């Protein structure tokens, strides 16, 4: 009888311990900052399961607002562990963290969380806040009067050049933002007469662009690159 009681007690103790071991894993996920996985660029894996050292694993995620560094570290550790489990042998994992509404070509991430070998780095781009504010203002609910006014000019929006990866952002109040890869975004004002658009940059002066309403494109004549076409996104 005593043997049966001891066996039953040991079984209950084993189950209880097993339950306690499983709990921290679930809690860890709950404590993660809120994010949305937009896309992932996975490395090429050979038939034998080999990943070459030059292959990267990239996660593109979106967050609602800027995060403190310790919260970014939580996201970084989570995706590093996930990446190593999904792709054993991977030694370069990048997490691009975009602010809400900015996860599109030509717009820089708010933060880059990088693992190379055993070295972890976090780079924060404060200029991304400025871009997010401009986009958020474009998407704010408008009054009925404002909606009618904006319907008259379908030109307002974002235009991206797939060749240079530069972006023009045109606002309904005739202000805008020019985003060049690797540089801080610059402000400008604009006016349109038919298909002719004049952009007055904060530092570079006036620039003439051609608008094609049928294709929804902007054409720029660049001294360095020749004809550049920007598509509305």
Show the helix and strand layout.
Blueprint: H1 2-30, E1 36-41, E2 57-63, H2 69-86, E3 92-99, E4 111-116, E5 119-124, H3 127-139, H4 144-151, E6 157-160, E7 167-170, E8 175-179, E9 186-193, E10 196-201, E11 205-212, E12 217-222, E13 226-232
Give a structural overview.
With 233 residues, the chain is an alpha+beta fold. It contains four helices and 13 strands. The chain has helices at 2-30, 69-86, 127-139, 144-151; strands spanning 36-41, 57-63, 92-99, 111-116, 119-124, 157-160, 167-170, 175-179, 186-193, 196-201, 205-212, 217-222, 226-232. Strand 7 (167-170) and strand 8 (175-179) form a beta hairpin. The longest helix has 29 residues, at 2-30. Residues 1-28 have low confidence and may be disordered.
- Binned, the helix content reads 25-40%
Reported for the largest beta sheet, the result is: 8 strands, antiparallel, barrel
- Give, in spatial order, the strands making up the sheet with the most strands: 6-7-8-9-10-11-12-13
Order of SSEs:
HEEHEEEHHEEEEEEEE
Shape: elongated
* Radius of gyration, in angstroms, nearest whole number: 25 Å
Strand content: 25-35%
- Compute the separation of the termini in Å: 76 Å
